[in-house]
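Justification of computing resources. Each target in the renewal requires a structure prediction run like the one illustrated here; the chain below, 148 residues long, is used simply to show the kind of job we budget for.
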Amino acid sequence: MRKIEKPVYATYVKTMKLRLTDEMENYVKMKALEQHTTASEVIRAALNNYLNRNISDMEIIHTTLSENTRKIKFLENKIEILALMVTQQTKFIMKSFPSNVNSGKSNEMIEKEFDEFKKDCMKTAKSNRVGLLESMLLDAYTEIQEQA
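Resulting structure tokens:
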């Protein structure tokens, strides 16, 4: 978006109330900070561009794609963290099973069992991409039930 410049002749006498989501408010504030102007000027410029059709379709498409890409990356990071947490919790639970503790299994044997469990999970995930997380959780639950 171009630098927002207030026309010299502009005098504003009408006031309108506008309801925004928190996300929209943050975008307006960030744009105002970036353009060294006020939030009101940003909203006026956006409204003016919209009413006068100064914003091209390509700008809207590019902005939407950029925003969606950012959101997808954020969600991917969250899923990776969640998968890591599930993996680590499963490893911890497998080590603390009474059958593993009482039988005197070594950490190496438990690690080997865990690696087999991970391979099974990955095989299931590759065959069923629709419910990756659900499959992982169900496999972990099934494995825990079998061990108990």
